[in-house]
Write a structure and sequence with these properties.
The chain has a five-stranded antiparallel sheet with strand order 6-5-4-7-8. A three-stranded antiparallel sheet has the order 2-1-3. The longest helix is centred in the first third of the chain and has 8 residues, at 16-23. It has one domain. The protein starts with 15 loop residues before the first helix and ends with a strand. The chain is built from two helices and eight strands. It has helices at 16-23, 93-97; strands at 28-32, 38-39, 54-58, 62-71, 85-92, 103-107, 121-129, 135-142. It binds zinc ion. Zinc ion binds next to loops.
């Protein structure tokens, strides 16, 4: 499967460190410097305590499928040779431990259609995509 035709993610001030870590095959979440609440996607202010203090910390990269969609139509020309493909919404385990949602989207790979269900345990995998600019995708696969 060629991923060259995929659109590239856009980085901004808040997400640039996250994308840099992804290129090094690390999944990060922000952690509030005052109340300790993890959060994703990157943002400047804590939803719980309004603190502007935060750090990045490495995530275990495990979660469970919350929802999904199977795309049978290529909405972009670069995806034409990939249909059908499955995009999952994953709730990170670390979010659930803090009674909060840390939600990630990504392709589901290395799976059988029969095992796809809500609550399926998954883990993050990283796929390097060559081209200009080179990038890395966060994808998900069932935990074995
Ligand atoms: Zn906080």
């Amino acid at each position: 499967m060629s991923l060259d035709g995929r659109p590239r993610p856009g980085e901004d001030r808040d997400s640039a460190p996250w994308w840099k870590a992804v290129r090094e095959h690390e999944l990060l979440v922000q952690e509030c410097g005052d109340c300790g609440r993890p959060r994703f996607p990157a943002r400047a202010v804590c939803n719980r305590c309004r603190s502007l203090a935060w750090t990045w910390r490495r995530s275990r990269g495990t979660g469970r499928v919350y929802s999904w969609v199977v795309n049978h139509r290529a909405f972009l020309p670069g995806l034409a040779d990939e249909v059908p493909y499955t995009v999952v919404l994953v709730r990170l385990d670390e979010g659930a431990e803090h009674d909060d949602d840390l939600l990630f989207y990504g392709d589901l790979v290395d799976f059988d259609a029969a095992e796809l269900r809500e609550g399926l345990p998954v883990e993050a995998v990283f796929t390097d995509v060559p081209g200009e600019p080179a990038t890395t995708l966060v994808r998900w696969r069932p935990r074995r």
